[in-house]
Design a protein that fits this description.
Blueprint (H helix, E strand, L loop, with lengths): L6 H28 L1 E13 L2 E12 L2 H21 L7 E10 L16 E11 L2 H10 L10 E3 L7 E3 L3 H26 L3 E9 L4 E4 L7 E15 L1
Antiparallel strand pairs: 1-9, 2-4, 2-5, 2-6, 3-4, 7-9, 8-9
Length: 236
């Protein structure tokens, strides 16, 4: 039994050395993992809108409801014919609701009782098309309606024509790839300045895509943008 007493301390010593090695190695690896750089990668594309919506408002005033109704119907027919002659299809044109206000029925406001016209009718008309160029030509030619006594106005004064872009899903893969490549280049520049090398991706956040107008006057041109945030490990 005494001959084996020396064996236990040796095993304990070996275990301590091995444990120390793994603890030290784990510590080194942990420190190496902590060395990282977080960068942002940008991808930006300029695209043309592929859908336009032009909500039009027609206003007619009068004192006789029957005459007012006929006048409103005639103007709607003239506007429909105008857009059809401009090359639009009936599917791209939509007649909306009509609202008639009676100034005599207003309970408050004495100024309403002295108006020249008792009835004011508003009718909606919407053009919805993917042919942006055709719409812009029609927008210019719509001034010809004035010669027929027809005044049209955009229902939304703050944004007369609403332009949108629906092809984002087709752009996403290439833009994410470009943003990631851009982020890698930034990280490599940082690593070069710090005498390090860029290793694996530690974490990544794709970021949200945004679609904005090029400027207030050319809203039919859109800017698609995404910023990805990527953290890379660094090594010597």
């Amino acid at each position: 039994m005494k001959n084996t007493d020396w064996f236990s301390p040796i095993l304990i010593s070996i275990a301590v050395v091995i444990a120390g090695y793994f603890v030290s190695n784990t510590y080194k690896n942990g420190k190496a993992f902590e060395r990282s750089v977080q960068v942002k990668g940008l991808s930006e594309k300029q695209v043309n809108a592929d859908l336009a919506v032009w909500p039009i408002s027609i206003t007619v005033a009068g004192n006789d409801l029957n005459l007012l109704k006929n006048d409103l119907e005639n103007q709607n027919n003239e506007i429909m014919s105008f857009f059809l002659n401009q090359g639009f299809t009936e599917k791209e044109l939509n007649r909306g609701t009509t609202n008639i206000n009676d100034s005599k029925a207003v309970l408050y406001g004495s100024e309403n009782q002295n108006r020249e016209f008792r009835y004011i009718a508003n009718s909606d008309f919407t053009v919805r098309t993917s042919n942006i160029e055709k719409l812009q030509v029609a927008l210019t030619n719509s001034l010809n309606l004035i010669s027929k006594g027809i005044l049209i106005s955009s229902k939304n004064t703050w944004q007369p024509i609403q332009y949108s872009f629906s092809g984002l899903n087709e752009l996403k893969p290439a833009m994410i790839e470009e943003a990631t490549k851009n982020a890698r280049e930034v990280a490599e520049k940082f690593a070069l300045d710090s005498n390090s090398k860029v290793s694996k991706i530690k974490s990544a956040n794709q970021g949200q895509f945004s679609i904005t107008d090029l400027d207030p006057n050319t809203s039919y041109i859109k800017i698609v943008r995404v910023v990805s945030t990527i953290e890379y490990q660094l090594e010597d």
